[in-house]
UniProtKB/TrEMBL annotation:
Mur ligase C-terminal domain boundaries: 310-424
Keyword annotations of the record: ATP-binding, Cell cycle, Cell division, Cell shape, Cell wall biogenesis/degradation, Cytoplasm, Ligase, Nucleotide-binding, Peptidoglycan synthesis
One of the protein's GO biological processes: peptidoglycan biosynthetic process
Keyword Cell division annotated: yes
Regions annotated as coiled coil: none
Keyword Kinase among UniProt keywords: no
Pathway the protein takes part in: Cell wall biogenesis; peptidoglycan biosynthesis
SUPFAM superfamilies per the UniProt record, alphabetical: MurD-like peptide ligases, catalytic domain, MurD-like peptide ligases, peptide-binding domain, MurE/MurF N-terminal domain
Compartments reported by the entry: Cytoplasm
Function: Involved in cell wall formation. Catalyzes the final step in the synthesis of UDP-N-acetylmuramoyl-pentapeptide, the precursor of murein.
Name of the protein this chain belongs to: UDP-N-acetylmuramoyl-tripeptide--D-alanyl-D-alanine ligase
Length: 433
């Protein structure tokens, strides 16, 4: 059926959305009455699934190829289904008169988002990004999941190139923002750490131009330098800040003692690593600012347990395994190794997978990690795959995580702390499979 491509009739689409309030881009996850958006990806053309989505019980489908506009009464044909999804999200955002806190940064976005959401939920009806649905599809899907009774929303924004955070801000219209930190990740797309700073700074640019509020870790001079002309600034950190805490991290799990006038008190977290200190403090600052009762903040943060191989602690026989295999980049690797070095434990072993998406800096960054490792004594170090193969080091090298796992089983370590970390695609969690 030949049809002219249409621009989005946003009011009609919004009226359909208001009847169902559930949007899906994947037939494999479809629920009855979802509105299906046919996206194009590397492997499939979502348009091919639109009719099937309706058969499966979708209420409506948005397609962007005329050949698939086969059931006009239940379909809308638009020029670009992804753009339609983003426009619908913006329209919905404009109907929500609530604070929206955007969180970006190199490391700790998901953990900070979860902690902030946990702390805010102790006083408000909240909605937060699920998992790390933080990109050009995930951000609009997150906004469209905010129901009318939500009082505050927390939205994670990821990026691997310039102008990406700016584009998400134009959809989410955040009123508040956090850049967790700036480090080395996705250098392939950002070019350099300076490029990462510029890209993450797009959140501050938006808040600066829109009378927004920034929560910032005052310990990071490079973030403080970026705050010029931000209308409202709330600081947290280990000294000289609106919310001051002390990190107590001599066991695997971080504890934080609040100082100054805060009544939040002492927080025993279930998070490994002193590097989670600013993530916890961000949650304290946000919840306190929004006036969540102070006696409810510490229990809410303490109850949060990480998942999905993000710094999870696993007891196996009498060994303690820190499974941090969700992702890796030079900054988070450095933080994890330095934290591991500081843990008081008799025996320590590291299995580290290669880091991805580092472009021209990749070999240099892998070499820098080896130099860092060499500053400490370890009982064993296994480096796995990728650019670890291209550098000189005194450690064991394995081609992949499966081989590293076989090696680990043969060792029969006792009373040992074992750190497992690597980029997503190295799948270092397979070491324990
Ligand atoms: C487009 C899409 O949603 N793809 C998802 C799909 O992938 P698959 O390979 O199977 O299919 P296609 O992409 O080719 O599919 C085209 C469409 O067809 C649909 N479809 C396919 C088969 C079928 O039987 N029925 C169908 O309806 C399909 O759903 C598509 O709409 O499935 C995968 C498995 O579930 C998904 O992983 C894949 O999702 C992609 C990756 C995606 O972008 N999902 C977002 C919702 C999201 O937010 N994902 C996050 C990861 C975000 C991330 O990596 N963030 C980075 C920084 C951001 C960088 C940004 N520039 C970028 O490039 O993304 C970070 O470091 O944090 C997540 O899933 O966790
Ligand atoms: N504040 C921090 N500083 C350095 N590294 C951190 C920090 N917080 C978390 N990490 C490291 O990053 C890993 C992933 O944490 P998290 O998922 O919260 O980050 P993220 O920025 O959301 O990553 P992604 O965007 O890939 O989901 C942790 O397991 C830990 O190794
Ligand atoms: C998983 C993705 N968000 C990410 O962090 N990528 C880095 C390069 C990784 O694979 O660890």
């Amino acid at each position: 059926m030949q049809q002219t491509l249409l621009t989005v009739n946003i009011e009609q689409l919004y009226s359909i959305y208001q009847q169902h309030r559930s949007v899906q881009t994947d037939t494999r996850k479809l629920k009855t009455n979802d509105i299906f958006f046919a996206l194009k990806g590397d492997n499939f053309n979502g348009n091919e699934f639109a009719a099937k989505a309706l058969e499966m019980g979708a209420a409506f489908a948005v397609v962007d190829e005329a050949a698939y506009y086969t059931i006009p009464e239940k379909m809308m044909l638009v020029a670009d289904a992804l753009e339609a999804l983003q426009q619908l999200a913006l329209w919905h955002r404009q109907q929500l008169h609530i604070p929206i806190l955007a969180i970006t940064g190199t490391n700790g976005k998901t953990t900070t988002k979860e902690l902030v959401n946990a702390a805010l939920s102790a006083g408000f009806k909240t909605y937060a990004t699920v998992g790390n649905l933080n990109n050009h599809i995930g951000v609009p899907l997150t906004i469209l999941s905010i129901l009318p009774d939500v009082e505050i929303a927390v939205i994670e924004m990821g990026a691997n190139h310039q102008q990406e955070i700016a584009s998400y801000c134009r959809i989410a219209l955040p009123t508040h923002g956090i850049i967790t930190n700036i480090g080395k990740a996705h250098l392939e797309g950002f070019g350099s750490e300076e490029g990462v700073k510029k890209a993450k700074g797009e959140l501050y640019d938006f808040l600066r131009a829109n009378n927004g509020t920034v929560f910032v870790c005052n310990d990071y001079g490079y973030l403080v330098e970026m705050l010029k002309s931000i209308p409202h600034i709330i600081t947290y950190g280990s000294k000289k800040a609106d919310y001051i805490g002390e990190s107590i991290a001599d066991t695997a799990f971080l504890a934080v003692a609040l100082r100054g006038s805060s009544q939040v008190g002492f927080i025993q977290t279930q998070l490994v690593g002193a590097y989670n200190f600013p993530n916890v403090m961000a949650a304290v600052a946000v919840a306190s600012h929004f006036k969540v009762p102070e006696n409810k903040i510490a229990p809410a943060i303490a109850a949060y347990t990480p998942s999905n191989n993000r710094s999870q602690v696993i007891q196996q026989d009498n060994n303690t395994i820190i499974m941090d295999a969700y992702n890796a980049n030079p900054s988070s690797m450095r933080a994890a190794i330095e934290n591991f070095a500081g843990i008081l434990a008799p025996n320590k072993v590291l299995l580290l997978g290669a880091m991805m998406e580092l472009g021209a800096d990749s070999v240099k960054e892998h070499q820098a990690l080896v130099n860092l490792l060499e500053r400490n004594h370890w009982d064993a170090v296994v480096l796995v795959g990728g650019d670890f193969k291209k550098i000189n080091h005194p450690y064991i090298f394995m081609e992949d995580a499966t081989a590293a796992g076989k090696w680990l089983k043969q060792q029969q370590f006792q009373n040992t702390y074992i750190l497992i970390k690597g980029s997503r695609s190295t799948g270092m969690e397979r070491v324990l499979a």
